[in-house]
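PROTEIN–LIGAND DATA SHEET

This sheet pairs a single protein chain with one bound small molecule, zinc ion, given as SMILES. Inputs appear in the order they were entered. The predicted three-dimensional arrangement of chain and ligand is reported afterwards as a token string under its own label.
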Amino acid sequence: MTVHSSSSHTPKLGMRTTKQRTAVVEVMQEIDRFQSAKEIHTALQDRNAKVGLTTVYRTLQSLVDIGAVDALHSPTGEVLYRHCESEAHHHHLVCTKCGRTEEIDGGPIEKWARQVADTYGFQLTGHDAEVFGICSKCRENSQ
Ligand SMILES: [Zn+2]
Ligand SMILES: [Zn+2]
Ligand SMILES: [Zn+2]
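PREDICTION REPORTED AS:
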């Protein structure tokens, strides 16, 4: 892992940006759930922000690259994006119906990943684990 040192603590999303990039960032900060690039694009259109879908994809990828936005693959294979509160390492519990997301601790997964890498002589560079379910609100609504 590369560690960038920064003396002053500025929010990662507040860095120098273009107008379009800023629009994407603002929408990401407003919406609390994981959503696809297409949904983000629609949300931008609702706000009369003129950002093309290609730019939305590119911007999201660059935000993921700097760690400002988290991305995950939904069970249906879609890539979903979210701006999370926590800047520390975390995992996600995601409602597959409404996209509601809880930022969760990896718990035993953290240790397990290190052990598995050790066992096979790998240097650990990362791991991935997300939990999907249906939240209580969505369960109530479907009853
Ligand atoms: Zn996250
Ligand atoms: Zn839900
Ligand atoms: Zn973890």
